[in-house]
Amino acid sequence: MDKKILYDALTDMEKTLSETLRNVSEIKATTQEVIERNNTLEMENTRLRDRIAQLSKNEKKTKVKNRAQIAMEKLYNDGFHICNLSYGQRRENDEECMLCLDMLDTLD
User: Fold this and answer.
1) Is 86:102 a contact under the CB 8 Å cutoff?
2) Rounded Cα distance, 90 and 81, in Å
3) DSSP labels for 72-104?
4) Cα 56 to the center of its chain, rounded Å
5) How far apart are CA 16 and CA 10, in angstroms?
6) Which domain of life is it from (predicted)?
7) How open is the CA angle 103-72-80, to the nearest 5 degrees?
8) Rounded to whole angstroms, how far apart are CA atoms 66 and 84?
9) DSSP letter assigned to residue 1
10) Is the dihedral angle over the CA atoms 58, 60, 62, 64 positive or is it negative?
11) Which residue in 6, 46, 52, 98 is a FRET match for 37, CA 20 to 30 A apart?
12) How much is the pTM?
């Protein structure tokens, strides 16, 4: 084989390998960026899931509280005591009870 042809072939191979190495380096850098972005998004996703869970808990508590408040108000408006002292007893002449009213205020 002619030395010039061999030298030219090696030079071409060197250029090809250099270009391939540059491409691999770019792919490596891009992969690193993608991994870092993925980690950031996973952490943000975890924080958001925790926040959603917390908000869901608070919403459930609020709904239960609202149902309890509605039930207590209904009992009181139907003429029954809802205070600890006379719970379930009929209010005489539908007179207002300060303890019951205080109980309703604390449910808000």
Assistant:
1) no
2) 6
3) HHHHHHTTB--STTTTTPBPGGG---HHHHHHH
4) 9
5) 10
6) Bacteria
7) 90
8) 20
9) -
10) negative
11) 52
12) 0.49
